């Protein structure tokens, strides 16, 4: 049995807070999603990372850069 799906998708804002090795962001329909996970040592590290410390406090957290956005009337 075949299904044919026609879609019109309009995205005004899409905010993704974090991406991990197993993240999936799907917009629209997909017939099948096959899981795939790869782990690469792209930094040529030779030993394990140091243990994580306490998360930064609000005053230690850096301010993200501000990006000017064009309004929809333009």
Structural class: little secondary structure
Helix proportion of residues, in percent?
under 10%
Largest sheet: none
**Gyration radius, rounded:** 20 Å
**Terminal Cα separation, in Å?**
45 Å
Write down the overall geometry: flat
Number of strands: 0
The helix count comes to 0
Low-pLDDT residue intervals, each spanning 5 or more residues: none
Residue-averaged pLDDT: 76
Strand content: under 5%
How would you describe what is shown here?
The chain is mostly loops and 74 residues long. It contains no helices and no strands.
Name some characteristics of this structure:
74 residues; little secondary structure; 0% strand; flat
Short précis:
With 74 residues, the chain is mostly loops. It has no helices and no strands.
Topology:
Layout: no helix or strand
């Amino acid at each position: 049995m075949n299904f044919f799906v026609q879609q019109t998708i309009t995205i005004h804002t899409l905010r993704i807070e974090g991406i991990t090795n197993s993240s999936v962001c799907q917009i629209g329909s997909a017939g099948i999603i096959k899981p795939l996970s790869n782990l690469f040592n792209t930094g040529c590290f030779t030993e394990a990372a140091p243990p994580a410390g306490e998360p930064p406090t609000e005053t230690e957290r850096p301010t993200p850069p501000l990006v000017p956005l064009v309004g929809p009337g333009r």
